Amino acid sequence: MNGVEEAITQAHHQQWARVVAILTRRFGDLDVAEEAAAEAFATAVERWPADGVPTNLAAWLITTANRKAIDRLRREHKRDEKHQEAQMLSADVPPEPLGAIDDDRLRLIFTCCHPALALESRVALTLRLVGGLTVPEIARAFLVQEAAMGRRITRAKAKIKAARIPYRVPAAQELPGRVSAVLAVLFLIFNEGYLASSPHTDPVRHELTAEAIRLARLLRVLLPQDGEVAGLLALMLLTEARRTARVSATGELVTLEEQDRGGWDPALIADGHQLVRERLAAAAAGVAPGRYQILAAINAVHTDARDVRDTDWSQIVALYDQLVRIDDSPIITLNRAIAVAELDGPDVALAAVERLENKLTGYHPYHATRADLLRRLGRSQESRVAYDRAIALTANTAESAYLIRRRNQLR
């Protein structure tokens, strides 16, 4: 990649959401903003190799996109009000102050993740308008036909318009609930990359985990005081640090205890630990941690151990106890039981796991966890049945390969 191509790629990563956000506020139309931003970047691809890379990338892209939007509105004679509005705007608009740009970008994130939209629509809009992914890229990411994904995004934008969903940052009293909706979207994107839900893709999808981390970093810049934003970013970083060690050369999942810890990314771990320490300091000052912060702290304990035998399981169980008090979901209880098995033994853990059967009967990690505990207790036949159930429910190819091997090792 030459210098100009690299500059365009970097500009797309850093400026796409900013350009779309500014044009959305200026013209009040997501379609206009999205198309004009895409045309501005297409113009950059054509002109920068010949003209050189502009000194102020943001100003060049915003000005170019603004002109493209005005040109489009002038061509659309049916949109008289928009045409008149466009005529009132200068084609040469100076860049906005950084604070205003950041506010616009934050408005865009909250608009894309509005709870009035279906969750899959929030994910698609966030990846398209905030992340800048193309419709084909999003369709491939979630194994949907390109035309169907295009219709999904179009319907979501139409609903925003029809329902008059406001393009704004929520009021102070609304912010906690709305931030949690944004974080849920980013976490869903990350989890699909961390452990793909389809057998037709790579088992670990770096392009999705990287995009989720990039968007979480952006949100962290925009909401630096929000503890759960910091917690989710730390959780993603500490999980991503282990990515290259998670699948073997033969395509089999490598569990945490079997991973080569020398292959973990020390820079990501350092960044994640720093965020966790900041949140621990806040907790010491009386600010109660949320779900993502506690999950990040659990991952910090795991990544702090140079060897699996050095893991502080008592601290992990204590953190899960804290988490259960704010989120007593059966999945959290299942994960706590896995830690309890290391501290109090597989028999104690199995008793806790089996109490979840009616709630997690279709959840393959439940059966995989139960199979492993039964194996450790020497109950091989029951373990085999549980492994078979887990394998039947697992779509991820690396995870299936691991479970099949463990089942076949039973006597």
TrEMBL record:
It holds the Pfam family DUF6596. Residues 18-78 form the RNA polymerase sigma-70 region domain. InterPro entries: DUF6596 (IPR046531), RNA_pol_sigma70_r2 (IPR007627), RNA_pol_sigma70_r4_t2 (IPR013249), RNA_pol_sigma_r2 (IPR013325), RNA_pol_sigma_r3/r4-like (IPR013324), TPR-like_helical_dom_sf (IPR011990), WH-like_DNA-bd_sf (IPR036388). Residues 109-160 form the RNA polymerase sigma factor 70 region 4 type domain. Keywords: Sigma factor, Transcription, Transcription regulation. GO terms for molecular function: DNA binding; sigma factor activity. It comes from the Bacteria. Residues 178-278 form the DUF6596 domain. GO terms for biological process: DNA-templated transcription initiation. The keyword Transcription regulation applies. SUPFAM superfamilies: Sigma2 domain of RNA polymerase sigma factors (SSF88946), Sigma3 and sigma4 domains of RNA polymerase sigma factors (SSF88659), TPR-like (SSF48452). Gene3D superfamilies: 1.10.1740.10, Tetratricopeptide repeat domain, Winged helix-like DNA-binding domain superfamily/Winged helix DNA-binding domain. Belongs to the sigma-70 factor family. ECF subfamily. This is Putative RNA polymerase, sigma-24 subunit, ECF subfamily. It comes from Kribbella flavida (strain DSM 17836 / JCM 10339 / NBRC 14399).
